Amino acid sequence: MSNPTITYRKHVRLIPDEPSEPTSTVVLTSRTSNYVDVRIYKDEHQKAQDESILEWAFAGKSYTTQRSVDDGVNKPQHSVWEHWIDSKSDNPSVDEGDMWPQSNGDVLERGTQKHPVTGLDSEYEELWAELDVEVVGTEKSRISVVLKTEINEEYGRGLVVRVGRWCQGILKIGDKLTIERWQWVNSKWNRIARIGDGVLPCGATFIDRYFSEEDLLPSGDLVWKVIEKFHW
């Protein structure tokens, strides 16, 4: 296990197109690889607070195979992201890619996905960079918290991940989505984006001294479980 991370995407490229970045894409990943990935359109779209700002959001666990040498050939690190929740589908396709470290510390992800226009399999690239995980306010250490809920009868699932000064959550009940992104800016927590009208317990992660791992936290009509709490 590694320490929690905050990563953001610098660009995406569907080959042979040129690289671009139409979204603000941030991924929060916990020590045990629970993650929430939220992709919000930039510029004018961010003034709205409805699904028009959302390009994609998904959450679950990620799995990584480390770099190796096979028959004298260097094989890159390979990552798979389980979409336990997906804003676009209840049966998402496999999300995986090879991760190539760059000389400046960035990571170039390469793989294959459906082209959004042609529908054909297309090679893609995504360039990722890490943000420093910082201490918030009067807290004594860096903090990561993961909250989870599930309602089998209604196919309801939710995951909230906080890492340092960022927190993101996604809740999907049937076809109803609720998504939030928060960031600690100017000495307070600010909600950067909200989609939907459900209740996400992001705020509970801001006062973590009141709960421990395995605790149950009521929020709206749901009960969320603290499945991870880590200080470092």
Protein topology:
Elements: E1 5-14, E2 23-29, E3 34-41, E4 54-65, E5 68-70, E6 73-75, E7 77-81, E8 85-86, E9 96-101, E10 107-114, E11 121-131, E12 143-151, E13 156-163, E14 166-173, E15 176-185, E16 188-195, E17 216-219, E18 222-231
Antiparallel strand pairs: 1-2, 1-11, 2-3, 3-4, 4-7, 4-8, 5-6, 7-9, 9-10, 10-11, 12-13, 12-18, 13-14, 14-15, 15-16, 17-18
Question: Would you summarize the structure shown here?
Answer:
Helices cover 0% and strands 57% of the residues. It is mainly β.
Account of the 3D structure:
- This protein has 232 residues and is mostly beta strands.
- The protein has no helices and 18 strands.
- It has strands at residues 5-14, 23-29, 34-41, 54-65, 68-70, 73-75, 77-81, 85-86, 96-101, 107-114, 121-131, 143-151, 156-163, 166-173, 176-185, 188-195, 216-219, 222-231.
- An eight-stranded antiparallel beta barrel has the order 1-2-3-4-7-9-10-11. Strands 16-15-14-13-12-18-17 form a seven-stranded antiparallel beta sheet, with no helix packed on it. A two-stranded antiparallel sheet has the order 5-6.
- The mean pLDDT is 92.
Contiguous low-pLDDT stretches (5 residues minimum) are none
- Strand portion: over 45%
Q: For the residues shown, what is the average pLDDT? A: 92
Secondary structure tally, helices: 0
Question: Features of this protein?
Answer:
single chain; 232 residues; mainly beta; 8-stranded antiparallel beta barrel; 7-stranded antiparallel β-sheet; globular
